[in-house]
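Colleagues,

For the teaching module next term, I've prepared a clean inverse folding example: a structure given as tokens, and then the sequence designed for it. I'd like students to try predicting residues themselves before seeing the answer, so please don't circulate the second half yet.
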């Protein structure tokens, strides 16, 4: 109980205690059937809907937070997995730089996904639910004021029915009744105007939250699918590199063969004597028939795939050395 002298006067305290006792007495009489109770079936239905809405919204908020926690856990696991692969990936393996970029892009994608769900779904749900405590408090106040109104009504009626009428007390009771009725009806009207709109707003918040969630999920999975395909392509080329190294000296090789290189950047031929290259192509580097024809930074070669199929060097051409790495 609040101490006198700390914001609550003795008179105010006494009034509050009297109100509490009066309300308790009125509720007991109503439960015993000795006093009628003001009832509003339509309003009670609104309150039932409000409580249901608040419970459902709170559950959705909780589940969204759990979903975000799961996204963060998956992000952390993904980061650790990519860090492990980066630590094991040797510098001369195919696609080392691409692997590093892929890890950064994957990390950014997870971060954006988590932030977008937080901003577009969870925060809107937080804002939506922030209205409920204040409305709930006003409903509770309205119910208390309804009890006060019933108590004042019964008190006034009892004075009027008394054998010995005290006009002063009756006038005072009527004044108290009017004041109690006015306070109750003001709160009641406010809530009757507000609760239906709040109830209808649930549809909009659910639509916005799940549309936003679905949109960001679709974007995330689409972009992650591209990154996964890139990872698969790098692993495929790494296996081809391993195969090329393992079998580098096996089988027949074209005349003038020097060594093998693997393409690390696409190269589009700009002249008829140049070789068109795609990332991952294995090229058999050949010696120039006339060394004086070799330009600095350029090599002569033949795609290994062509040689294995055709066994001829008609498709040989020159290509920039810095678009490849030796295997």
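(Answer key — instructors only)
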């Amino acid at each position: 109980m609040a101490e006198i002298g700390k914001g609550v006067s003795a008179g105010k305290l006494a009034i509050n205690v009297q109100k509490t006792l009066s309300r308790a007495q009125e509720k007991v009489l109503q439960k015993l059937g000795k006093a009628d109770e003001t009832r509003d079936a339509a309003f009670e239905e609104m309150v039932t809907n409000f409580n249901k809405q608040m419970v459902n919204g709170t559950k959705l908020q909780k589940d969204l937070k759990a979903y975000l926690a799961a996204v963060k856990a998956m992000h952390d696991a993904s980061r650790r997995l990519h860090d492990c692969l980066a630590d094991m990936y040797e510098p001369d393996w195919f696609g080392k730089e691409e692997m590093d970029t892929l890890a950064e892009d994957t990390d950014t994608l997870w971060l954006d996904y988590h932030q977008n769900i937080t901003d577009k779904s969870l925060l809107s749900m937080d804002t939506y639910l922030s209205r409920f405590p204040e409305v709930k408090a006003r409903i509770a106040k309205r119910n208390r004021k309804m009890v006060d109104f019933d108590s004042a009504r019964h008190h006034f009626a009892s004075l009027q029915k008394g054998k010995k009428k005290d006009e002063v007390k009756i006038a005072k009771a009527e004044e108290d009744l009017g004041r109690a009725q006015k306070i109750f009806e003001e709160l009641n009207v406010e809530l009757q105007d507000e609760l239906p709109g709040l109830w209808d707003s649930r549809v909009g918040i659910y639509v916005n939250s799940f549309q936003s969630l679905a949109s960001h999920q679709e974007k995330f999975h689409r972009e992650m699918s591209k990154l996964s395909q890139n990872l698969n392509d790098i692993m495929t080329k790494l296996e081809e590199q391993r195969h090329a190294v393992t079998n580098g000296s096996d089988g027949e090789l074209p005349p003038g063969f020097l060594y093998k290189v693997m393409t690390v950047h696409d190269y589009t031929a700009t002249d008829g004597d140049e070789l068109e290259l795609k990332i991952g192509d294995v090229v058999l580097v050949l010696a120039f028939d006339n060394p004086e024809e070799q330009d600095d930074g350029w090599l002569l070669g033949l795609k290994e795939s062509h040689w294995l199929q055709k066994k001829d060097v008609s498709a040989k051409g020159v290509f920039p050395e810095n678009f490849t790495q030796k295997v």
